[in-house]
Amino acid sequence: MATPERDRKVLYVVVCAAGPARDAVRLVTAATDRGWDVCVIATRAAAEGGFIGRPALEAASGRPVRSDWRRAGEVKRNPPADAVVVAPMTMNTVNKWAAGIADTYALGLVVEAVGVGLPVIALPFWSSALDSHPATRRSIEILRGSGVRVLYGDGEWTPHAPGTGETRIATYPWHRALDEASRAPASGGSRAAGG
């Protein structure tokens, strides 16, 4: 018999170290309101750099925020994911992810999610100066070619001028990422192993 928790689809929310991370509870609350079981994974920089409100995220999701790998022999801490949202996604994350670098728990999860064919939605946040680097655009195209729904471009999300990111935090389009996750087709039984 399935538990009520497993009757709900599981959404992993991967939060990177960027200004909107302080409001990630908006995404978590909206997702739980739509019936998702949410597991929050913060990059180490987001968790240790004061970018997230850990108590608010844990209260909204009902689960601890994770940022490190399980220890050998430790029981899995989160149920397998049905979909993944990476928001806010930083330039560092997009470039490492596109290169297949899985040297942190958060990156390992998103690299694996793509590998098993889960619906993955990425919502960036960086300046136009960082956006102008050729690696950034190339990485976006690599992720898109791998099936990641990157919400980047006109009508979705566009970079801000250097030094103006703070003015864009209040209007960061969390809802777009959640809408995409809700519309994503079922993963066909492939689910990330969880952690």
Number of strands: 5
Shape: globular
Strand content: 5-15%
The share of residues in helices is: 25-40%
- Annotated CATH topology: Rossmann fold
Number of domains: 1
Q: Topology as H/E string?
A: HEHEHHEHHEHHEHH
Q: What spatial order of strands do you see in the largest sheet?
A: 2-1-3-4-5
Counting H and I runs of at least 4 residues, what is the number of helices?
Answer: 10
Low-confidence stretches: 1-5
Class by alpha and beta content: alpha/beta
Plain-language structure description:
This protein is of the alpha/beta class and 195 residues long. It has a single domain (8-69, 78-183), classed as 3-Layer(aba) Sandwich (Rossmann fold), CATH 3.40.50.1950. Helices cover 39% and strands 13% of the residues. The chain has a five-stranded parallel β-sheet, sandwiched between helices. α2 links the parallel β1 and β2. The radius of gyration is 16 Å and the shape is globular. It starts with a helix and ends in a 12-residue tail after the last helix.
Summarize this structure as a short list of keywords or feature phrases.
alpha/beta, Rossmann fold, 10 helices, disordered N terminus, Flavoprotein, Flavin_trans-like
